[in-house]
Write a structure and sequence with these properties.
This protein is mostly helical and about 550 residues long. The protein is about 60% helix and about 5% strand. The chain is built from 17 helices and nine strands. It is found in: Membrane.
């Protein structure tokens, strides 16, 4: 019995709620299955997203800007709901049940969308000989479409925030063999550590209640009840929050088990430092939103651009939405070149194994800005061809769709850097009990990027548009100035990059924990030191 117990993992349970036995659970088969779940979800959601704008314009007969905003609002909601999924997974359901429930919801929404596109009653009649003969989809038809799309959005939100965290849950950090293998996916489950949102509010409330108290204490006098190997060293940033750890009269409540702290009045140093860790993520979080605003144009206006250009390869007509394949190609090429060429040279030059997560984010921001500049130049060329033909309403302009490759390639390569950089940054920089929430926080940058795109489109449409549908974002892009809109995004991206550099250099400070060696993660801990001899107020 004693030998068998050594196989169990203290903070993990199996499907039935019993302590997980690593000799019977996990393996590469379930690991492959969860990978299949993620791949299917990605193929489904992105397959819908990249073709949705052409469906809305060509079949539902909606204006260009309206169609773009429907797509970005759909994707923005999908990623925003990752916060809900992360909250439910961390606080109530656990990641396994969250994935199962929301996968079923997404399947329901996808099925409803397929039916809505098949039935004639759920889409308007085809257009006549002239543009005035086109009838837009009515309220009922759009209502069914919206219900289908937002069921998919709900399902996506629950899945995305849990899959990555569910993968990291499968490893026992105290077992060296498991740290080196991805062997346990479906049959090991981490116990919920409580709601991270409640923990954050407890620290804020406790600090606010003690806002008039002095901080003439050293770090050793602050309250700490966390086990030694799980403690986080005290840091000097956001000293106001340290007041939550000052022991005062009435902070403890008596019970049958003895005196225990009221967590809305007194929080441990580690709990306070966890909140500080989350706050440190926010400036980097805010300055990565603009990348996804640029990305949104690649699956909306760039797809619409492609639909007006020559897309023939012999007798084969390339679907406009298929241009996003260059995202995948760009990511594969970028990762290969980075792994085989850039990293060896970087290691030889700097003596480091690779770019840090902040450096990868910076590279992604630069590439997306360059992508928007390239998109502006390409659109200027496309508009000149449309003007030269004399019939700018022609279905296909005599210009190759492959002129769009540079903008797709630059933004796609930028995604390869920024996605991995962001995910790594948020997972490493967050407390152990808030990793699903931090993954959801990362995914909200995508959400807000899409919402910012919708906001910019609406503002630009209002400021530059006219009653007859002209302006930068005209109903027919051959009559608009989409190049100016792309140029605006390039300017905003440049400004954002400068702000990012300031935030990365002056605000963010990695935190040193006693249970993990951050040097192995490529993070310097020189700025995160404990205050032992001098008062907190002096160091603040």
């Amino acid at each position: 019995m004693e030998g068998k117990m050594t196989w169990t993992v203290a903070d993990a349970v199996d499907y039935y709620g019993f302590p997980a036995d690593r000799s019977k659970t996990g393996g590469w088969v379930p690991a492959a299955l969860i990978l299949v779940v993620e791949v299917c979800e990605r193929l489904s959601t992105m397959g819908i997203a990249v073709n949705l704008v052409t469906y809305l314009i060509g079949t539902m007969h909606l204006p260009s800007s309206t169609s773009a905003n429907i797509v970005t609002d759909f994707l923005g909601t999908s990623f925003l709901l990752c916060l809900l999924g992360g909250f439910l997974a961390d606080s109530f359901l656990g990641r396994y049940k969250t994935i199962a429930i929301f996968a079923a919801i997404e399947a329901l929404g996808t099925g409803a969308l397929a039916i809505s596109t098949k039935l004639r009653q759920l889409r308007p009649p085809t257009c006549g000989a002239t543009a005035t003969d086109c009838k837009q989809a009515n309220g009922f038809q759009m209502g069914i479409l919206y219900v289908s799309l937002y069921l998919i959005a709900i399902g996506t939100g629950g899945l995305k925030s849990s899959v990555s965290g569910f993968g990291t849950d499968q490893f026992d950090e105290k077992d060296e063999k498991e740290k080196a293998q991805m062997a346990y996916f479906f049959n090991r489950y981490k116990k919920s550590m409580g709601s991270p949102i409640v923990h954050i509010f407890q620290v804020i409330v406790a600090a606010t209640r003690k806002r008039n108290m002095d901080l003439h204490f050293n770090a050793g006098s602050l309250y700490e009840d966390t086990p030694e190997n799980s403690r986080i060293d005290h840091t000097n940033q956001f000293c106001f929050l340290d007041k939550a750890s000052i022991v005062a009269e009435g902070d403890f409540e008596k019970s049958a088990a003895g005196a225990a702290p009221n967590l809305w009045k007194l929080c441990s140093v580690t709990r306070v430092e966890e909140v500080k860790m989350m706050i440190r993520l926010l400036p980097i979080w805010a300055t990565t939103i603009i990348f996804w605003t640029s990305y949104a144009q690649m699956i909306t206006f760039s797809v619409e651009q492609a639909s007006t250009m020559e897309r023939s390869l012999g007798n084969f007509q390339i679907p406009a939405g298929s241009l996003t394949v260059f995202f995948v190609v760009a990511i594969m090429i970028t990762l290969a070149v980075n792994d085989r060429l850039i990293m060896p040279l970087w290691k030889k030059w700097k003596g480091k194994p690779g770019f840090t997560n902040l450096q990868r984010i910076a590279i992604g921001l630069v590439m997306s800005t360059c992508g928007m500049a390239a998109a502006a130049l390409c659109e200027r060329k496309r508009l000149s061809v449309a003007k030269a033909t004399g019939d700018s309403t022609a279905a296909t302009l005599p210009i190759s769709v492959f002129f769009l490759i540079p903008q797709f390639f630059l933004v796609g390569s930028g995604e390869a850097f920024i996605y991995t950089g962001q995910l790594d940054f948020f997972i490493i920089g967050s407390p152990k009990g808030m990793k699903t929430m931090s993954t959801g926080l990362f995914l909200t940058t995508l959400s807000l990027g899409f919402f910012v795109s919708s906001f910019l489109v609406s503002i630009v449409k209002r400021l530059t548009g006219s009653k007859d549908g002209e302006g930068w974002l005209a109903d027919d892009i051959n009559h608009g100035r989409l190049d100016c809109f792309y140029g605006l995004l390039a300017v905003l991206g440049s400004i954002n990059f400068v702000v990012y550099l300031v935030c990365a250099a002056c605000w963010y400070r990695p935190t040193k924990t006693k249970s993990a060696d951050l040097h192995e993660m490529g993070i310097s801990t020189s700025t995160s030191t404990a205050v032992n001899g001098s008062s907190i107020e002096e160091n603040c």
